[in-house]
Amino acid sequence: MSRLAKVKVETTTVHFVRPLLGFNDDTFELAQHDADYPWFTLSVADAEFPSFITVDLAAAFTDLSIDIPDDIAADLNAEDIDALLILGIVNVADGFTVNLAGPLVVNLTAQTIAQVVQDADLPTAAPLNGGN
User: Fold this and answer.
1) Nearest to 92 by CA among 127, 40, 46, 56
2) Tell me, what CATH number does 108's domain have?
3) How many structural domains does the chain have?
4) Predicted confidence (pLDDT) per residue in 90-126, tens digit
5) Domain residues for 105?
6) 129 domain-assigned
7) Is residue 32 part of a domain?
8) H, E, C per residue of 62-112
9) Is residue 46 part of a domain?
10) From CA 126, how far away is CA 132, in angstroms rounded?
11) pTM for the whole structure
12) What pLDDT digit, counting tens, does each position of 29-61 carry?
C-alpha cells in the first residue's frame, strides 16, 4: 500500500457504518492532527472520550496490503477502493505501535468509516519506527 499524494483533511464528521469494536458511538470527528500529515485524530463527535490518534497506513507501511470485503465497501458507499483513507489506531503507551489487524477504512466523500478486521495474520501492535 502506498499513496502518491498526501491526504489533507479539514475536520469532518464521519459515521461508522459498522460499530467500532468495543464502542457504541457511531458519529466521530476526523481531523488532521496538528495539520501534520500522516497523523489524524478521531474523536466522538459529542463527547471528549474516546479519542484516538491514528496514522495513514499507506504513508507508514508501503508494503502493507489491506483486504476490504465487497460488502463493507458497499456499506461505505465506496466507488473507488483506491480513494479510501486507511487509518491505523496508534497506541502511544506501547512505544508508538499501530493496530494493523483492525484498520479503519474511511470514505471521505461519503463521510463513512468502518473498522475492517483482517483475516491475515497482522499484528495489533506493529512498531511505528519507519521500518516499512
Assistant:
1) 127
2) 2.30.290.10
3) 1
4) 998 878 899 999 999 999 999 999 999 999 899 999 9
5) 12-124
6) no
7) yes
8) CCCCCCCCHHHHHHCCCCCHHHCEEEEEEEHHHCCEECCCCCEEEECCCCE
9) yes
10) 10
11) 0.88
12) 999 876 667 899 999 988 777 889 999 999 899
